[in-house]
């Protein structure tokens, strides 16, 4: 286990960096460690960005309508709110606290994605902006494209110049998916897809979405396929 932040580090670390660390901490279950150690994080914006990970409301089950600000997480659909206390636990402001431990909420989201995969209904489609990074010389803007993620994996279709292109990543070619929250502060959240000689940075837009769900679905699709070879 790693310590999330010492009191001295909290003072010395920029706000956006702290948010990134908090968002990623659940992966290693640093929240359990924080609670055990009774380590207090008094940072007033400690819940900001958490809605990107906790994208589904456990009260009304609506996806992509969570927001966060200050120490609070909120659902725009049913108006339920949770407070993140100084020990990294969530407490509902009114009624039942579904998940006080952040990783439990995340695993609940995963189980919902797993159900969609097992039922064969998982599907995501969105307009996207694409950039590629074929080498160290810099990003090449590839303009707009369409991204589909479903039971067959990823399919990216677009035009570069007048040439149509398509990139397909099958379910069994990816056991996980690299995502970024507000990558380089440019277009927002993105999904990275790699070919042998290129990396595509794919930014969905124009509709509510969560790159966290796409990453969970990538893992669950892979696990499902491995269990049931065709
Ligand atoms: Zn809700």
TrEMBL record:
This is DUF4178 domain-containing protein.
């Amino acid at each position: 286990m790693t310590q999330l932040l010492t009191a001295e580090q909290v003072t010395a670390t920029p706000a956006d960096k702290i948010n990134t660390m908090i968002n990623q901490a659940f992966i290693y279950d640093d929240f359990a460690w924080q609670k055990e150690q009774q380590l207090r994080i008094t940072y007033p914006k400690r819940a900001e960005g958490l809605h990107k990970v906790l994208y589904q409301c456990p009260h009304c089950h609506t996806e992509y309508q969570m927001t966060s600000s200050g120490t609070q997480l909120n659902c725009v659909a049913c108006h339920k709110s949770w407070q993140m206390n100084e020990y990294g636990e969530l407490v509902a402001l009114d009624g039942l606290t579904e998940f006080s431990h952040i990783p439990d909420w995340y695993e609940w989201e995963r189980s919902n994605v797993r159900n969609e995969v097992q039922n064969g209904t998982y599907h995501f489609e969105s307009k996207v902006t694409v950039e590629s990074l074929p080498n160290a010389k810099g990003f090449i803007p590839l303009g707009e494209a369409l991204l589909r993620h479903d039971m067959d994996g990823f399919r990216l279709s677009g035009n570069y110049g007048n040439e149509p292109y398509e990139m397909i990543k099958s379910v069994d070619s990816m056991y996980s998916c690299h995502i970024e929250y507000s990558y380089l502060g440019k277009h927002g959240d993105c999904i990275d897809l790699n070919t042998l000689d290129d990396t595509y940075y794919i930014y969905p837009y124009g509709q509510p979405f969560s790159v966290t769900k796409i990453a969970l679905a990538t893992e669950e699709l892979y696990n499902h396929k491995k269990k049931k070879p065709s």
